[in-house]
Amino acid sequence: MTGKRVMCALVAAAVLVLLLGLRRAEPPRAAAIAKPAEKPWLSRDAAAQIIAPGGGLGPLFADVELGRPVPPDARARIAEFARKNHVAIDLEVIDDELVAVRFDVTFGGCCGYEGADVLALRLGRRSTSDCCGCGNATWMNDWSFASEDGVTVRASVRVNRLVARWERTATLADVLSRADELIGRDAATTRKAARDRWIELGAHRHLLEVPYPFSPFYDFGAPVPLANRDDLGFNVLVERGRIEHVMFALHGVEDMRQLRARLRAQWGRPQRREDDTWTWQLADRSITAQLDDMTTLVEISQR
Fold first, then answer.
1. Are 150 and 183 part of one and the same domain?
2. Which of 180, 297, 287 is nearest to 243 (CA)?
3. Within this chain, do residues 141 and 255 fall inside the same structural domain, yes or no?
4. Are residues 131 and 235 in the same domain?
5. Among candidates 199, 200, 272, 205, which has minimal Cα distance to 236?
6. How far apart are CA 233 and CA 207, in angstroms?
7. Is the Cα dihedral 96, 97, 100, 106 positive or negative?
8. Which residues contact 105 (CB under 8 A, 6 or more apart)?
9. Residue 234 in contact with residue 205, Cβ under 8 Å?
10. Does 10 map to a domain?
C-alpha cells in the first residue's frame, strides 16, 4: 500500500513538473498598445470663422485688413484660435503692413481627403469636364480667383491637406512692373522673398504666383498640368542663378486700348510693330507683346 502511494506521488510530481514546464514555454502576452487619439477635424463652425461665404476672409479676421498694420490683440487672438483648432494661420507682414493671410489644415484619419474636399468647396474649387453637361467633371487641385472687394484667393488641395492664401489683387500696371523688375534678379533671393508663391516646375523653370486674374479657369477639356498653366502667375526661366526670362498670358482682355496704353507707359513706344506684335529692344532686355483680345502673350528676356 505504501509503495503504491509512493508511486502515485511520483507520477503526480512528474505531471506537475511537466505542466509547469509547458506554462513556462508559453510566450508572454504582448502588452496592449494604446491607439493614439486622432486630432479632431476642423469643425464647420470653425471653418465658417476662417472662410466667409464666397471664399473671402471670415469673421475671425474682422479687425485685420490687408494693406494695414495688424493690431497686437488680433494677432494673439488669431494665433490662439489656430492652436485650439489644430490649423496653421500665418500673417505675412512687410513694412508693418499685412501683405497676405495664409491658412493650412491637414485632415487626419483614413478619410481625411473628404474633409479637405468639402472645405475646398468653400473656397470656390473649380472643376473641368470633357464637355458641357457630360457629368464627368474632374476637380482642379490648384485654382485662384479674384473677389469683387479686391482680394485674390489662391488655394490648393493635396489629398488630405488644403492650403489657401489671401492677398490684395494686383493691377495691370503692377503686373507689368513686377515682371519687368524680375529680369536679372538673383533667383535664390527672389525665391526666399516669394515664399510659397515660388513653385518649381522643372529644369530651370518656375512658377511665380501673382494675385491677378490672368485668365478664366479651364472649364472644359482634360485637366491641365500645373507646369502648363498660365492663369496663376509668371513663367520664369533661371540661368546661372539669375532670372533671364519672364512670360505671362492675359486672357479675355476687355479693353485692348487700355492694355496698349499700359504697355507704352511701362516701356515707351515700341521700336517695331508687325501686325499685332510689339517689340522693344532696351539696353539690357527685349520685350515682345503679341496682342490679342483672346490671349495676349508678354515675354521679357535679358539681353
1. no
2. 180
3. no
4. no
5. 205
6. 7
7. positive
8. 42, 86, 87, 88, 116, 119, 161, 162
9. no
10. no
Edge-to-edge strand list for the sheet holding 295-302: 198-202, 205-209, 233-239, 242-251, 295-302, 285-290, 277-281, 272-274
C-alpha distances out from residue 271 to 188, 267, 281, 289, 293, Å:
33, 10, 7, 12, 22
**Residue 2 domain flag:** no
Q: Cα(138)–Cα(3) distance, rounded to whole angstroms?
A: 90
Q: Considering the entire predicted model, what is its pTM?
A: 0.84
Record the cell numbers describing residue 194, joined without a space. 516669394
Give yes or no: residues 158 and 188 share one domain: no
* C-alpha torsion sign, points 106, 217, 210, 148: negative
User: pLDDT of the chain along its 303 residues, tens only?
Assistant: 455 554 555 545 555 555 555 455 455 666 556 555 667 899 999 999 999 999 999 999 999 999 999 999 999 999 999 999 999 999 999 999 999 999 999 999 889 999 999 999 999 998 887 776 666 778 999 999 999 899 999 999 999 999 999 999 999 999 999 999 999 999 999 999 999 999 999 889 999 999 999 986 566 677 788 999 999 999 999 999 999 999 999 998 989 999 999 999 999 999 999 989 999 999 999 999 999 989 999 999 999
51 and 147 housed in the same domain: yes
Domain membership of residue 132 as a residue range: 37-169
* Among 169, 162, 178, 183, CA closest to 239: 183
Domain identity same for 43 and 61: yes
Domain-terminating residue out of 132, 152, 169: 169
CA angle 216, 220, 226 (to 5 degrees): 65
Is residue 294 a contact partner of residue 252, using CB atoms and an 8 Å limit?
yes
Q: Which residues pair with 157 in a beta bridge?
A: 162
Residue that finishes a domain, picked among 106, 138, 169: 169
**Within this chain, do residues 158 and 178 fall inside the same structural domain, yes or no?**
no
